[in-house]
From TrEMBL:
Keywords: Coiled coil, Kinase, Phosphoprotein, Transferase, Two-component regulatory system. Residues 28-69, 270-341, 429-470 form the PAS domain. It catalyses: ATP + protein L-histidine = ADP + protein N-phospho-L-histidine. Residues 789-1051 form the Histidine kinase domain. One of its GO terms (molecular function) is phosphorelay sensor kinase activity. This is histidine kinase. Residues 86-138, 218-269, 340-396, 504-556 form the PAC domain. Pfam families: GAF, HATPase_c, PAS_3, PAS_4, PAS_9. It comes from the Bacteria. It comes from Oscillatoria acuminata PCC 6304. Residues 391-432, 743-780 form a coiled coil.
Length: 1054
């Protein structure tokens, strides 16, 4: 009996152990023969969320998710009702509505008759496993979708140790890429490898071998020739991985780079052309950095300015090229270029290495990076000293001509390339050729040797004016006599092909159907059989009527340009003669003499308008004309042939002629006798003039002169080129006169230059001051960023500590009652616990620990406030104005300086202020500078008060007695909406001399190394210039200093 009891007890213990194990690992549900739940274990309650009371006498439908079809449970019930065990996976729903999966085994419990009288279901939670399977399925589906839609090919490439290669995987995109399906490549890797271009295969093989040997990532660019003959550039990237069996597996991606290769080649050619243009262009090309120091200098610049490239590099533009008088203008151009507001074109005087002054036209372009930031300037420079007008016209015409020729050449090359491509395609595929043949924009033909058409495309019919190719071939059956305008042109066509095998751009005039004559260009060849017998001629026809007209126009333009070049050479020669002197009399005398010799005329004279003549009634009555005469014109210089009357001195002209000249309108009279104004005719006849050309000009000072060319012996028709040439000479003469007048004013200009130099010196001083301020601002910005970063790094751990002190306090409060209960119910613990309690001093810990936690909380709260102040103060790099609370900025600054304020009392009297629109970081910098100076002053005053033997005895009213360092901060809003901030200290104060220089840059009263003298200067600029406010200091020695800041609520409301 005792043994049975022991065994029973062991069985019960084992049963309890099994039950505990099952409760921790599996769900157990017991139902009766009707499926009603009679028992559930703790695991079911834990996972399903239903309590035991909610579950009993319910069916398993309690956790049915509704996601299985009815047939699923019908089959399950049929299985177990027949006494068989059912196994499967079921998707259930918890009480909170969430889904979980269980691996289920349902075992029927049979009675003595073998009929199930209850069922036990054993279930294991496989939700995480199912979720992983779903994620895996989703990942595989997403990879397949990605591989199908990726603009490239994803692949795996395997190499065995014996060198055999395979493609275990190739994405479906290979069909579009290589015109081969993925299965073919996976079955035979050589199918793809055979497509690699023969010239690129050695590099491919070498790159794979290197990657296999080093296990470095594989990269290759090369061409493949698809089965259709299409050549495609591809780029491959993959990463190799050594397998355990020695195989090497590459996972990679192939992408098409054909367009990129074409673009790279075009870019290379463009860069090559640009480099040649840089070296060979007659214009000086100069590249500058942001400080306008030379970074590049082409040969034309060497020739123009006399400096070699090595001499010019890294030198400033002003230092090299700009005379003193033009430096202000050049500086303005520099600033406009850097700000992208102008300066792209300017005309300046420059000097060369030899000291010669030249006039240059500058075309400047700021170089902008993709972020929109200027990184430099490129300049094109043209010396227009010798040629200001017609050289530009000639250059523009040449550029237009070159552009048109290049454009037409490119069109012809494209047409030829297209034709050759079409002919090659015809040999490969007749069907493809037929589509091209029918839709080509160029005419395509085949003719017999006798001139009869075998075939023609619609474009050819359109060129010749026929409605269809059938009409063309029916009506045009002999091209020799019906088509060509020139009788023997067909024979020349055949002879040219016989000599060269083909012809290109064979140009001819032909008749259209309506009789119109057009120009065509033919490209043709002879087609022969294997024995060399001529079969037919085939080729293309392009109508080039417009091109021929354009070429004719270009030839005429070239002739005109050559004529202009000759005329400009003469003009340059005359200009050189004029500019050999700066004396006005010499310039005028040289001009009239050179013009007379140049144009081979009998008289050339120059007149000034002198508005002191009066209407001459006697002359008018003598000439019996209605047009009034004036004597306001004086001829001052002449060049004439012997026997021609001299016009020097004041002479009479008609009022209408004088008015036309004053309007700067040229007067051209080829035949004086036929001129409509009879007064002018009578006057010129009196002088013996037969033909007259008058070119008025106006100098920079406003004086009006007339350059007159006269022929007396016979009439002369002035051609257009002579009129244009005289206009150019008139312009050059105007410049020469201006230069002579400027030379006469040189002493005054020199004085102006000295004044300008003084202003530039002042500007340089201001620039240095601004530069220093920018450096200081950048330092403060960097400091702000560093402070913000440190504050951020401190904030995270201190927030963690601060938060945990609260939890620690709560935990202590929860544990304390437990300790008290232990002490109440176990007043006499074991000796070991007594010893430990005595050693730990539990009473002291219970009393001191809450205080320590409270101190930690206060300390962390203090650190968080300091961090917040640092983060707010560090907004020095904010470039946008925003409405802020001024008091917050002052409080943050005071908090940051708290370590220096331990012995100083800070008194704040804040008024009610609205939000102020300002630069918060810059205002924080102002508060910091003023408060730091106040602290320095108070520390100095405190030292004076405590320093023995300073030689002075304090008076009863002196602030030195009972000195209490104090800083007071007062804010208020004035009726005119100005915010006033007063920061006052009771330090030693300032003398009048120090006050007058207080805001000057680099002025400081501190010892060497203690201050830069920039703080108050920068603060003054921030308040006055940035915020349109006022910064003032009120102080006297011995009574402290008060800084008063006044800023408007919004910018512009000062």
């Amino acid at each position: 009996m005792t043994t049975c009891s022991i065994n029973l007890q062991r069985c019960e213990e084992n049963l309890l152990n099994w039950k505990s194990a099952v409760n921790h690992t599996a769900i157990v549900i017991e139902t009766d023969d009707r499926g009603r739940i009679t028992e559930v274990n703790d695991k079911f309650i834990e996972i399903s969320g239903y309590s035991r009371e909610e579950s009993l006498d319910r069916t398993p439908a309690l956790v049915d998710s509704g996601l299985h079809p009815a047939e699923f449970f019908t089959q399950l019930w049929e299985t177990i009702s027949q006494g068989q065990v059912w196994r499967g996976e079921i998707k259930n729903k918890r009480k909170d509505g969430s889904i979980y999966w269980v691996d289920t085994t349902i075992t029927p419990i049979l009675n003595a008759e073998g009929i199930p009288h209850k069922y036990i279901a054993l279930q294991f939670d496989i939700t995480s496993q199912k979720q992983m399977e779903e994620k895996l399925t989703f990942t595989q589906r997403r990879f397949q979708q990605l591989a199908a839609n990726l603009p490239g090919v994803i692949y795996q490439f395997l190499m065995r140790p014996d060198g055999a290669v395979f493609f275990p995987y190739m994405s479906p995109g290979c069909q579009d890429f290589f015109e081969i399906n993925a299965e073919s490549i996976e079955n035979n890797a050589q199918v793809l490898l055979n497509l690699i271009h023969p010239d690129d295969f050695p590099n491919f093989y070498r790159s794979v071998a290197i990657s296999a040997e080093t296990l470095e990532p594989w990269h290759w660019e090369g061409r493949v020739i698809n089965p259709s003959g299409k050549v495609v550039w591809i780029e491959g990237h993959s990463r190799p991985e050594q397998q355990e069996n020695g195989d090497i597996l590459w996972d990679g991606l192939l992408i098409e780079i054909t367009e990129r290769k074409i673009a790279q080649e075009a870019l290379r050619q463009s860069e090559q052309r640009l480099g040649l243009h840089f070296q060979q262009t007659p214009l000086a090309v100069i590249e500058w950095d942001l400080n306008f120091k030379v970074m590049d200098w082409n040969p034309a610049a060497e020739k123009m300015f006399g400096y070699s490239k090595s001499e010019a590099l890294n030198h400033h533009a002003v230092e090299l090229l700009v005379p003193e008088s033009a430096r202000e203008q050049v500086d303005q151009v520099f600033q406009a270029l850097l700000q992208q507001t102008g300066g792209t074109r300017s005309t300046n005087e420059n000097f060369t290495k030899s000291g010669e002054i030249i006039v240059c036209e500058w075309y400047n372009t700021p170089l902008i990076d993709p972020d929109g930031t200027a990184i430099g300037v490129a300049s094109l420079v043209e010396d227009i000293t010798e040629r200001q007008h017609y050289q530009d016209a000639l250059k523009a015409a040449n550029e237009a001509l070159e552009h048109r020729v290049e454009e037409r050449t490119e069109q012809l090359q494209e047409a030829i390339a297209k034709l050759q491509g079409e002919m090659a395609s015809r040999e490969l595929a007749e069907e493809k050729y037929r589509s091209i043949f029918e839709n080509a924009i160029m005419g395509i033909f085949q003719t017999t040797q006798e001139g009869e058409y075998i075939s023609a495309n619609p474009a050819l019919a359109r060129i010749y004016g026929y409605e269809s190719t059938q009409e063309l071939m029916q009506e045009l059956h002999n091209v020799d006599h019906q088509l060509y305008v020139e009788p023997n042109r067909r024979d020349q066509f055949i002879e040219a092909i016989a000599q060269h095998g083909k012809i290109a751009d064979f140009e001819s005039q032909v008749y259209c159907k309506n009789g119109e004559i057009i120009w065509i260009a033919e490209n043709a060849r002879a087609v022969r059989d294997e024995t060399g017998t001529l079969l037919y001629y085939e080729g293309t026809v392009e109508e080039i009527t417009k091109r021929k007209h354009t070429e004719a126009a270009l030839r005429r333009s070239e002739e005109r340009l050559q004529e202009k070049a000759l005329r400009e050479a003469l003009l340059n020669q005359l200009t050189e003669q004029i500019r050999q002197s700066l004396d006005l009399e010499t310039i005028l005398a040289t001009t009239v003499q050179e013009i007379r010799e140049l144009l081979q005329i009998e008289l050339c004279y120059f007149s000034w308008y002198r508005p002191n003549g009066m209407p001459q009634e006697g002359v008018r009555s003598r000439l019996q004309q209605q047009d009034c005469l004036v004597l306001d014109w004086e001829a001052v210089k002449e060049a004439r042939s012997p026997g021609v009357v001299s016009p020097l001195g004041f002479y009479a002209v008609s009022e209408s002629w004088s008015h036309q000249c004053l309007q700067l309108q040229p007067i051209r009279i080829d035949a004086v006798a036929s001129y409509p104004n009879r007064t002018v005719v009578e006057i010129f006849r009196a002088w013996g003039f037969k033909s007259v050309l008058c070119l008025p000009l106006q100098t920079h000072s406003g004086e009006v002169g007339v350059l007159s060319c006269v022929h007396c012996s016979k009439e002369r028709a002035w051609n257009e080129s002579e009129v244009v040439l005289m206009g150019s000479i008139s312009d050059r003469l105007t410049i020469a006169i201006d230069q002579a007048q400027l030379y006469a004013q040189s002493r005054a200009a020199a004085q102006q230059a000295r004044d300008q130099a003084q202003r530039l010196e002042q500007a340089l001083y201001q620039l240095q001051e601004t530069q220093t301020q920018l450096i200081q601002t950048e330092k403060m910005s960097s400091l702000g960023q560093m402070v913000a970063g440190i504050a951020h790094e401190i904030n995270n751990p201190i927030t963690f500590i601060h938060g945990n002190t609260i939890h620690a306090s709560n935990y202590f409060k929860e544990i304390l009652p437990l300790i008290e209960l232990y002490q109440h119910y176990y007043p006499k613990p074991v000796p070991e616990i007594c010893d430990l309690l005595e050693e730990l001093d539990l009473a002291f810990i219970l009393d001191d620990l809450p205080k320590a936690l409270h101190s930690m909380k206060l300390g962390t709260e203090r650190i968080r406030q300091i961090v917040l102040s640092l983060r707010n103060f560090s907004r020095l790099d904010e470039s946008q104005k925003k409405p802020v609370d001024i008091h917050e900025g002052i409080d943050n600054t005071v908090l940051i300086l708290q370590h220096r304020l331990s012995q100083i009392q800070v008194v704040k009297k804040y008024g009610k202020l609205p939000l102020i629109e300002c630069y918060p970081g810059q205002l924080n910098q102002v508060f910091m500078n003023i408060l730091a100076n106040a602290i320095d002053a108070l520390e100095e005053a405190e030292g004076l008060a405590t320093k023995p033997g300073n030689g002075k005895f304090p008076t009863p009213n002196s602030p030195v007695l009972n000195f209490s360092p104090t800083i007071s901060i007062h804010t208020e809003l004035t009726p005119d909406e100005l915010v006033v901030i007063r920061i006052k200290d009771n330090g030693p104060g300032l003398t009048e001399t120090v006050k007058n220089r207080l805001f000057d840059p680099f002025f400081t009263t501190k010892p060497v190394g203690k201050g830069t003298g920039l703080g108050l200067s920068i603060s003054y600029q921030i308040i006055v210039e940035k915020h349109q406010g006022i910064l003032d200091c009120q102080s006297q020695p011995g009574w402290g200093a008060e800084f008063v800041i006044k800023i408007p609520i919004k910018t512009g409301t000062k």
